[in-house]
Amino acid sequence: MDIREVEIKTGLERPNIRYYEKEGLLSPVRRANGYRDYSDEDVRTLLKIRLLRRLKISVEQIRQLQEDTVSLQFIVDSRMQAIAAEQEDLQAQENICRTIQTEHATYSELDAARYLQMMDRPAEPHKKPSREIYTDKTIRTRDVAYDPPHPFRRYFAAFLDGHLYILICMFLIFVVFGVRYVDRPSPLFYLLGILFYLALYFLAESFILSQTGFTFGKWMLGERIIHDTGRFLTFQEAYQRNWKRLLYGRGLDLPIVRIWRLIKSYRQYENGENLEWDDHNEIEFLPRGRIWAAAAILSVLLIGLGRFCAAEYAKYPPNRWPLTVQQYQENVAYYKNPQYGSDMENVVVIDVVPVHSGYTESYEVENDTLQAVTMNWDLHDSAFYVLPPDGRYAILAYVLSQKASLWNGGYVSYARVNAFINGLKANIPTLIQDGKGQTQNVFGRITVTLSWELTDPEGYADQLLFLKEKTGSAVITLSMKYE
């Protein structure tokens, strides 16, 4: 039988059973896979041990009984003498307490010498104790210190590991392999993310567990996993453990199933039941103080910051400052690529009427470095655009290419640039007055200027209210200059 059956039949906890085996009082046979196989004789031995320990007979005395170097009668006689002495001492304590209570003594008036003399008097012969002393409730039967469940430490350790794996996946996908996205992650991003995460979870974690008994999160929270024989798990055992934890503990990460399995596993663990993935494992909890708790919280914050930075990095163009004209055009093409999920509905006031325009683009180059870009749209019989689509791509491609920092103009985020572009639509009624308007914004070292001139303002009279029926003529100029 396995250890769960033995726990039920003997009423002993697993740590105590392991302790008695370690002390040589029990020797279960081993199966071919290395797991213990307990016999009925082992159960009877454990019941004997439990009874004798309840009688306060020491482990060393039980070992002597098993080795037949001393008789049970001798051990029991010795124990009865010890019980008698303990009863006399307890009776003396009770008598003194009753006397102090009867005399209403206070601490300041306590006559300690008299009471000590009373306690040192020989006990009256054959005097029975006033109450039964040794009961099931007052005698501890554990030979191993009780270690209560630590559900929070275990969950938080797994939480820390999971987010660390996500951070590593993002670094590999975005930085090493150069996969990027703009507004919405592409299917390629999701596919690579799942593959890298599973590789880390099943391969990397299994290897680390088999070598150290820890993962990063378990090390921070003081949780070590070893085999019930006291050795580290093998790679195969750690691999199987991770599969069982994914299935039984996380419900394959299916939304509703995951919550149900987490609650069920929590209740199992709180009730002292073995979790399916740690059926033949021992969980050791190492002491961790406030410094370790603070370090774990700091790790969560740093991992969160790392994930944010990795996500931001994925939104930047492939070529960074200084740019050549060709590199700038490559950046523009990067943002135009539909696989990255660019959301055009957020930047165009109306996109149902074709644009009939003349378009020009000019560059200012110094020492092969692109210093300024100017774009001009001459709209005729067209719906009004706050910013044509190519303008948005150009701003992202040029502004986000700079390596801005706190000492050279400030950090320029994708969210800030995108908010400026999307905000044009809401602010256009105030930006254009009497058919003309201009807005300017500085991002790091680059100044972006956007101007409008309505050559047929009557045609756009209602168009500024975002009606689709009318068309008109306008000139839109976008200028970006590195200073």
Give a structural overview.
The protein is an alpha+beta fold. The protein has three domains: 1-145, Multidrug-efflux Transporter Regulator, Chain: A, Domain 2; 151-313, no CATH class; 325-482, no CATH class. Helices cover 48% and strands 14% of the residues. It contains 15 helices and ten strands. The strands form three sheets. Strands 5-6-10-9-8-7 form a six-stranded antiparallel β-sheet, with helices on one face. A hairpin with a 2-residue loop joins strand 7 and strand 8 (436-443). Helix 7 (151-176) packs across helix 8 (187-212) and helix 7 packs parallel to helix 12. It starts with a helix and ends with a strand. Mean pLDDT is 80; it is low at 125-141, 339-355, 405-409 and 462-469.
Total tally of structural domains:
3
Find the structural class using helix and strand composition.
alpha+beta
Lateral strand order in the biggest sheet:
5-6-10-9-8-7
Amino- and carboxy-terminal Cα gap = 79 Å
Range of helix content:
40-55%
Q: What Rg, in angstroms, do the CA atoms define? A: 39 Å
Number of helices: 15
Order of helices and strands: HHEEHHHHHHHEHHEHHEEHHEEEE
pLDDT averaged residue by residue: 80
Oligomer: single chain
